[in-house]
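#struct-pred

JT: dropping the chains for the assembly here, can someone run the whole complex?
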Amino acid sequence: MMKRLRIERATGQLLAAHPSTTSTPGAALRSSHRASQVPVRHQSSSAVEAKSHTPLYEEDGTDHSRFPPLEKLPPNTSALPSPLPSRALQSAKLAALHARLSLSPKIPLQTLARTLVDASADPNPQFNNSSLAFLGSTIINYHASEWFMVHYPRLPMDVFYAAMTGLAGPAPLHRIAKSWGIESAAVPGGEVDPGLLQFSLEHPGESVLGFGYTRTVVGKINKNNWQRSVASKVIYDDDFGQAVPPPSQQPKEENNPAEEEESEEFSESVPLPKFSPTSYGSEQTRELSEKAHANFVRAVVGAMYAHCGREAAKSFVKAHVLSRHLDLERLFAFKHPTLELAMLCAREEFDPPVARLLSETGRLSRTPVFVVGIYSGNDKLGEGAGATLEQARLKAAMHALKAWYLYSPGERARVPSDMLGDEDEGGAEKKKSWEPVYVDIGELISR
Amino acid sequence: MAVKALQAVSQGRNGVGAFILQCKRIDLHYCDWAGSSRGMNGFIKSLLPKFAAAHPQIEFTVSPRPAKHPVAIGHYINGRSKPICVRNMEPYEILKKLELLRDASGEKLKKVTKPVRSINESVRGIWSPYHGNGMPL
Amino acid sequence: MRHLPRLRGAVSASLCCSSPTSIRTTAVAAVATASSSTTTQSFQRRALSTSVVSSGAVEIQTPPQGLKPPSKEWKVAVRPDQITDPAYVPAQDGLELEEVGGLDGWWENPANYGAGKEWVGFGPTEKVTDPAVLEVAVYRALVEALIARREMTRSDLTVARDILLSSGWGPATLTITAAKTKLIAGQHGNLLFNGTQEHEAMMAALEKHTFPAKENGDQDTILAAESEENLEPEVKEEVETVAAAEQEAEVTEEVETTVAQDQEVEVKEEAEEAVAAEQEAEVKGEDYLTDGVISAEKAQAMLKELGHEWKRATIRDTIFKFFVAKRIQKLTGHVIPDGKLVALATAGSLIKEIIKPPKAKKLAEEIENKEIFQSLPNVRVFPRRVTPIDKEKMVGRWKVIREELEGRGLPVIGTANIDNAIEKKWVTGAE
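RK: done, full complex below.
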């Protein structure tokens, strides 16, 4: 269950990150930026305006007498890894995005601008969206998983992971970001419009994105495509059943060669091409782009939670993530459906399944059709049509299994988080009407 | 031996859960000098403030384009854009054009023969010749 | 190719007159000749010519009384029935006529050019825009107009009034004295001096600085009778520093003539001394002694002392308002159209009429001034064309492009003298 957090405190922390904390990984980088006469940044909505700078504008190689700069940026702005938070108030793109998502006015534009800065663009966690994305990912994954758990209580674990990936994984979140009209900056930097998603294809950033443990043999698992048991996936792996990758080594840490070798062993350290080979980019660049877009969506949800609370975040997730269409029937891949069905009937103490030919046509023709039904006693479990008797039988078994696995108590079943409403919002009434959900005894065969 | 899973990605259904207006940006270009921009300049001064306030989800950019006819360009979420030349138009005519840009989806114009398209499966199911009693001949 | 303006129909003699000396009196002459255009019509066609008429017969036209004639003598051809030359054969049609005059060689004649030939407008070429200075200018115009109405209504003083009308800011002491002359709203709200003696200092200052000796005899006597420029030596020095070079000479001449005339100098000398001492104190105390338009800070300091009561006083007299408007135009360059002038009834409305922000020339400026989209965060207005480089900068690509170009030794913007026809050289083999 989710613990109730103190929202006000979380908000304050988000808005006023303390520049004095030097224990963070990005502190060293930050201090080096300061040393090189880069305008000082502060993550605060109380608009630390860049008034104290010299009136000189950023030099960009263009003729300022003929084309005066459209935005009066202080010098060396493009040396910053991400735009100054104060510029968020000037960006029309950002304001339009805020309105397009119907975000609450409690969420300041500065925070929205921060959600658009990926860890690969700005490694400083006080200015990128990694913390918000982590918060958002936990919220999205929680709501998605409880929805599947309650509405499809008999889903096998692998299918459940696939459904989670299909609904809340990076790919669907990337599509959600695209459907919000997010445009990405070509190269991140301080002079970029804060309303653009900023991520770097050259330096993939480091961001913690979920719970889980790194397996000691993760390198070999990835390399040899080793199989993992469902139980170990539940214990070790992340919310999508994927092995947690080892924390990649920053290329700057060259003073530790032993660690570098180790990391090479684990993950492919192929240098990313500076320019993408095709107009659509390489596979790595597409993956990085997908990850950055997904992290943005998660960060928006995290910001929603931090500024507006749990209910707002939940309704946002419901509206934008859970409302999408995912056909669960298409996620099943059976190997021996008849055997599985027989074992199911044995476990549930049904009569053993029997396949019967219901109707047929054109047995001797080029295109015969057989309709086969699977019966357990007098109950028909499933029915399938195929061009051969064997095919029709398998299909009938598959249908019977899907009918079992995709049992749903109905759309109106309550999820646990429905009971988390505040006391003053009628939460007490909700608690009264809670009925326990159906919990399945478990998977039929699990490795 | 157990059930294996395939991968699929959820499909978005705009309007189910949340609605996102497909027009994300409208660029307005005008010329300070040319007479064909007279209506556009008046529109920007008089009607655009109200239109922009009514559509906060659209980003408006207003920039001069000297010695060119005035143009309004709509940019859409699917990546396409729709430019409309508004030379010699009166402000209210330009307002009509902006409403057109706002309501467009950004798709290429094509003839809609089936007014409803859905990814939901049919409620009645597909007719099967192998079920039911059939028709006695 | 030059386009010559065509003269159509009857043109008054004053416009055709090319004498440089008559430019200053154009206004007077134009009004006079317009009224008597029927009498001068007979020689108008000749007057269009700028070259010398070759006819022998010369008749000097005596202008009607009250006109100020152009200084050039007019030559009129002899009537055909009075020609005695037997060789004279009258022309049968227009083509046989000898061509006289025209603009032949006019453009090449250097005498038609020069400083004296250039058109000089009534007001200054550049408008005063500072609101405080404009307010002080209106105040000064009002003071001068009141003085003109009170003191210069006699027929022999109209010349002085014309000089006052066409004079500029002059020395700074004039503005200071004007600001010290208190204006109040009278019993019926009309504009008045604070007291009957209030304007004397201003009058004296005007006489000293604005009406120096001219070649006009009438004016000399008028000013001699009024001004009494018998000043103390040190005051005279002050005046000299203040006045322009030619004014200086004229003032000393004036002083000499007045002394020579030896009128009742002693009577008014004391008053003059008082004024002079006051001016001297101001001159020494403050840094007001800059001629021409006063600075904005000085104007603001003056406005604090002036208060606001005078702005509420009504002005109904149309001629008075016209005089004020002309003075404002002369001082500030702001022209108040007659249509608006009729509606302006108070000094404050006059000020409001001329203190207006200049009209924005570009739509972006107008939007910025009026703050049309100030409250709309989703609207962005660019002050200039958004170039491709700007677009690249917005998405952060420009720094990469620049780095790549600089790394290859290519110009970042422009072509840097690299001829675009280099392929042509390769093909033709030309150097």
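JT: nice. Chain B is about 20% helix and 20% strand. The longest strand of chain B covers residues 23-30.
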